[in-house]
Each structure stands twice: as C-alpha cells, then as structure tokens.
C-alpha cells in the first residue's frame, strides 16, 4: 500500500555521546538530513545519553561540532535524554501499574548461564527466572534495596495488543523519498522479556526512544539496519502506551575492510581523525555517495 507523506515530515538523528562520530554516523545523518530536506520537513538532533558511565559532555560537543562541519543544521535546543529521566520513569510506572512489567533481580551471569537462545542483538534470552516470584518475596527484596531491573512481560503484552504491523519504506535508499510505504507484521516475541528499566537508570534505550519519538512528533524514523529488529519491540511499546507509530526506513551499514560494521567500540576512524588527516566535508560526502546538491545518495 502507499500513503502520502505528512505535510511536514519530522526526522531525527540520535547518537549516543560515548565517543566521536565515524563515517557510519555521517552516512546515517546525511541520509536522514537529505530526506527531510527533499520532503520539506525537519531534521532533529537528539542526544541519547542515558548511560551514566559512558556518556560524556565532551562527546556531546564533539557530535555537534562534527555535524556542523559536515554542513548540517537543526533546530535548537537539542533534546538530551539525561534531562528527561522522570518522564521515562513515569511511563515505566504506567506499564508497571498495568502489570506489564515485573521485577527481576538476576545478574547478567545467571541469565547467560540459563538463557534459552538469543535475542536479535545476540544477547542471551531471559529464561523467566523472576517472572513468577511470590509477591511477598518481591516486596521484601525491594524494601531491602536490592538492585532490581524491570522486565516486560512479553506474553501478557502481546495478548493485550494483539497482532501489530510496522509501516516501512521499501527501497528507501534507491530513491530517498518519504512518500510511499508498505507494512509487515511485527514480531516482538523474539526479544523475550526484555529489560525496560535498568538497574542503574530508570529507563532503557527501548523505552526512552519511543517516548522521545512521540514527544518530538517524529513521523519517519531513518536509521541503520542494525536497529531494524528493534522496531518490532518499539511498535509494541507504542501500542501499550498509546503512542503514534512512525514510518520506518532502515539504511545499509558501512563496513570496514574485514566486513565488520563501523563502530566506536571497534575503534573505527572518527570524523575528527579524518579532519586532522586533512579530509574536507566534501571529501566525506563524496566518500559516502553524496554530492554537494541536496539530493539523496545512490547506494
């Protein structure tokens, strides 16, 4: 099926400030920025800094500096997730009150030892150890201040929403336009009882991103293929919380000479490093398949 784009599409680029941006980030930012510009829409920058250990202010400044150097612009102020923790905690409270969340006291080690398969990210699937703990035991352990995370009761959530579908843009990278979309069934069950509230932060990536997309009026989520499976979980959370469903487009990932995707954790060459080596913004754009004009790239 097809549907016209909204009169004013809103897209976002949402990096985590746990290192400097690399070419993969530049590609994702440029894809989204050009698509928004071609559709007469808005492209937002969002800083996903809920990780209290790895997120650093100098990396936030570095993200803005790198994107400005590339020639991109965006409305201000920039939303930072670390300033919105109370909102995420409130959303988690709604899910908890509706019994969609349950307390989990398990360690990563115990989950890995007892896991029944793996989720789409390759992490051990939770075996359900805490799913049926007696209520009085849970209350007592919480009262003692034992570290706790809160997991989504996936079976209950799916029964509540029924079958869900994901609106997406097929062949997006061939044309870079937002006008048409198709749909496919969502399969959130493959994530199992995923953590929605971490032990160290009153939220998680999955919970905070759907809250932010709704609050910012995001109409189209343009991001890498590594997050395509997460969309199944996100549309489930949107349904549970009564939030709108954006249209999704997942672009290819840039890989290194060994075929591995570019990543900060792998020490991929940063944009700041390329700048220091003499690269210009035009060099980066050409390397990634973009010209100086405001047109979508060709893969």
TrEMBL record:
It comes from Devosia enhydra. The keyword Zinc applies. Keywords: Aminoacyl-tRNA synthetase, ATP-binding, Ligase, Metal-binding, Nucleotide-binding, Protein biosynthesis, Zinc. The lineage of its organism: Bacteria, Pseudomonadati, Pseudomonadota, Alphaproteobacteria, Hyphomicrobiales. It comes from the Bacteria. InterPro entries: aa-tRNA-synth_I_CS, Glu/Gln-tRNA-synth, Glu/Gln-tRNA-synth_Ib_cat-dom, GluQ/Sye, Rossmann-like_a/b/a_fold. Belongs to the class-I aminoacyl-tRNA synthetase family. This is Glutamyl-Q tRNA(Asp) synthetase. Residues 12-285 form the Glutamyl/glutaminyl-tRNA synthetase class Ib catalytic domain. Pfam families: tRNA-synt_1c. GO terms for biological process: glutamyl-tRNA aminoacylation. One of its GO terms (cellular component) is cytosol. The keyword Chaperone does not apply. GO terms for molecular function: ATP binding; glutamate-tRNA ligase activity.
